Structures are given as C-alpha cells and as structure tokens.
C-alpha cells in the first residue's frame, strides 16, 4: 500500500519539467517568451514553406520575368497576387523569403552541428589526456582563432569555386558553406569543453569510474560530457546566429548560395543593385527578416546563459 502511494504521488516527468527552474525563469522573462514565440513562428513558417508559399521559387514554370519588381501591396502599383512584391527575376518575395529562411536555418543548424562535433571531440581529448596532445590541439585552436571566420571562408570558397567551376560550386554550395562555417568555428567549443573537463576530471565521480575499470572514452562521453552541456547549449545558441550571419555575408559577397537557390543572404545581394532605383523591398524585407531572426536567437542565448549560470541566476 505504501509503495502504491509513493508511486502515485511521484510527479511525472512532464510535471518535473514544467516545475523546473528553467521553465519558471522562462515564464517570468517576457523578452525570452516573445523571442521564443517569434522564433517559432519564423521556424515553423519556413519548415512549412511548401505548404504556405503560394509559389515555388525553384520552379521555373511559376516564374515570369514580366512580373519583376512589383512593390508590396501597401505601395502604389502593387499586384494583388504578390503580398510582399516580387524580386528582379519575377519571383514572389513572400514565397522566396519562406524558402530562403528555411535554407538559412538549415545551413546555420548543420554548421553548428559540425562545429560542436569537432570542438567537443577535440576539447574532451585535450582536457582529459592533457600533456603534449593538449598543448598541440590548443595551439592549433589559437592559430585558428587568429583568423576571422569570413577570412577563412572567403579564401576556402574562392579556391573551391576556382577548382570546381561555378556550375559544380553552385550545385553543392550548401555543403561547402556548412563545411567551411563549421570548420572555422570549432575552437569556441574546444576551449570551453576543455576548461570544463579540466575541472571535472579531478572530481570524485571520475575517480570512482576509473576504479570501476571504465575506459577513457566511456568516462569522457558518459560521465564528463553530460556535466559540460550547460555551456555547450549557450554557445550553440549564439553560434547558430553567427552561422546564419556568416552565410548571409558570404552569399552577399557572391561566395554563398546562388540566386537559383535563394537564401536570405542571396536575396539581399540580388536586390542590392535595385535599392537606389526604387525597388527597395527586394533587399529591405529579407534584411528585416534576417535581423529579426538573428536578434531573437541572440536574446534566447542571453536568457539561456543567465539561467544556466548559477552565479547570475537569481530565481
């Protein structure tokens, strides 16, 4: 009878999550709530782009050059079928922004996944093994940090484009962007994870795992890594925003996504030549979407940093 009472009175996993400090802090932070709502609206709309978008910007049959540079519906001379107007190729800007946002989010998330995999692996090895391996890996990370992400990306993408040609580069541009942005930013994870590992590997639970005969890989992955997740989550949030900005910058410079595969950066780039001729919406509206997307991600990252840092969190 007592065991039955204990089982029925134990809160469920969902109840424990809803009553946790993180959810409580989130509910009390209006900036975090609004940022999450805006981010979810943008993310869900971009994921559902094939269902929401009235036109397919990838389908040449749905594009008519005669429809180019129509203004948004609130400007004189607009066409009722194009809510946000059209770009210089005659594509519906609302549809193109939806598909472009989805592409920018995919590149940002995948690039951060590459960064996290490389950085966490190198940070765990450097911090746990130490010695010469630690010195070698951290000096390599210092060298990597001495170059800006854009500098590394511009050099790599320019060489790649020259080697494979424009057609091949445009076909696999998304993979090149994910790889170069991911490789250029791994030291951020490596240095943070290494610092956490140096502190964690001296604790008693690690000594107990060694006494039980667990190998180094199991200790690093099953015991030390879970205690390093808080700073990793914070870094990942900020790095997604940085990756989206990097993709947009590279696309604006002509080294990112081609015009036939619109991202937010390539949309801003394609409309920049027309901004002074009166077709301001081609650049301005995707630019506003990019700014809002990066802003809400950074605000969520700031909230997460505060709530996961016990020295800053006040309840």
UniProtKB/TrEMBL annotation:
Alphabetical UniProt keywords: Cell membrane, Membrane, Transmembrane, Transmembrane helix, Transport
| Cellular component terms (Gene Ontology) | plasma membrane
- Lipid bilayer topology: Multi-pass membrane protein
**Cell membrane as UniProt keyword:** yes
Q: Where in the cell is it found?
A: Cell membrane
Q: Does the keyword Cytoplasm apply?
A: no
A single BP term in Gene Ontology: transmembrane transport
Tell me the ranges covered by the ABC transmembrane type-1 domain, including all copies: 101-301
* Principal subcellular localization: membrane
For this protein, the parts annotated as crossing the membrane are 31-53, 103-131, 143-163, 169-186, 232-258, 278-301
Q: Which family does it belong to?
A: Belongs to the binding-protein-dependent transport system permease family.
Would you tell me the protein name for this molecule? Peptide/nickel transport system permease protein
Origin organism of this chain?
Answer: Epibacterium ulvae
């Amino acid at each position: 009878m007592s065991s039955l009472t204990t089982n029925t009175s134990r809160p469920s996993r969902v109840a424990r999550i809803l009553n946790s400090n993180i959810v409580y802090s989130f509910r009390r932070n209006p900036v975090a709530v609004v940022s999450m709502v805006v981010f979810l609206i943008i993310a869900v709309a971009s994921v559902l782009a094939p269902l929401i978008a009235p036109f397919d910007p990838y389908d040449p049959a749905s594009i008519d050059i005669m429809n180019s540079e129509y203004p948004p519906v609130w400007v004189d001379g607009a066409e009722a079928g194009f809510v946000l107007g059209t770009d210089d190729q005659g594509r519906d800007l609302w549809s193109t922004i939806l598909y472009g946002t989805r592409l920018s989010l995919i590149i940002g998330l995948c690039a951060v996944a590459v960064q996290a995999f490389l950085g966490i692996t190198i940070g765990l090895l450097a911090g746990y093994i130490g010695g010469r391996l630690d010195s070698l890996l951290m000096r390599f990370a210092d060298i990597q940090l001495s170059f800006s992400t854009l500098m590394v990306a511009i050099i790599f993408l320019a060489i790649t484009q020259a080697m494979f040609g424009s057609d091949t580069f445009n076909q696999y541009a998304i993979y090149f962007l994910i790889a170069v942005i991911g490789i250029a930013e791994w030291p951020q994870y490596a240095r943070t994870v290494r610092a956490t590992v140096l502190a964690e590997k001296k604790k008693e639970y690690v000594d107990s795992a060694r006494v039980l005969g667990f190998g180094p890989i199991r200790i690093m992955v099953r015991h030390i890594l879970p205690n390093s997740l808080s700073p990793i989550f914070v870094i990942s949030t900020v790095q997604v925003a940085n990756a989206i900005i990097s993709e947009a910058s590279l696309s604006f410079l002509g080294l990112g996504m081609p015009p036939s595969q619109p991202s937010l950066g390539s949309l801003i780039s394609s409309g920049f030549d027309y901004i002074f001729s009166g077709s301001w919406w081609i650049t301005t509206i995707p630019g506003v979407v990019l700014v809002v997307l990066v802003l809400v991600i950074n605000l969520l990252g700031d909230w997460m940093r505060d709530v996961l840092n016990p020295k800053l969190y006040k309840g």
